[in-house]
Amino acid sequence: MTWGTLMSRAGGMCEFCGGTEDLLPCDVPGAGEILLCEICQGEPPAAHWRCLETAAWSGEPEVQVAVWRKLGGIDEAWAAQLRDQMILSPEAEAVIAAPAALEHRDSNGALLAAGDTVVLIKDLPVKGAGFTAKRGTAVRGISLVADNAAQIEGRVEGQKIVILTEFVKRK
Q: What does the radius of gyration of the chain's CA atoms come to, in whole angstroms?
């Protein structure tokens, strides 16, 4: 979305709190972009998030998704109650219901895919197998751990092991 379109839709205000200073576009994964002030993009005091009581009723699906996710991360009774009361558009419900696609990335940020070959960048002691996987070892035909973007599986010295993605680079 262009800056002008985003500013026009938001009325030149933060779509959470209504602030008008230091506005920046913020990506809402799976939904699009919203306009937030620097305070809302940071870590404001907990009382600041009461602004979501108004933002929860936005007609914009992107804002609804962002508010719903933010409320889920606030450990307060009012946030849970507000989240339960939200009426979401069909577009927002579809984004929330869709499972988030995990991206497995190596130590350099390169996207990993099942079947790739990676190289270990550090000696790794393999617990329970009694050996150390040496730096520079190529691991061919990796598998991605479905529920954890920080882990892959591969065979080293005939043993199937779990490897943290921070210790590999794509070949």
A: 22
Single pTM value for the model: 0.60
Pick from 103, 132, 30, 15: which is nearest to 7 by CA?
A: 15
Distance CA 86, CA 101 (A): 24
- Cα angle value 132/144/134 (rounded, 5°): 15
Contact of 30 with 95, CB cutoff 8 Å: yes
What tens digit of pLDDT does each residue of 114-138 get? 999 999 999 999 988 889 999 999 9
Q: Which amino acid is at 104?
A: H
Strand partners, 27: 33
Specify the domain boundaries for CATH 2.30.30 within the chain.
118-170
- Helices (H) and strands (E) counted in the chain, each on its own, are 6, 10
**Residue 101 exposure: Cα atoms within 13 Å on the Cβ side:** 8
Which class in CATH covers the domain with range 118-170?
mainly beta
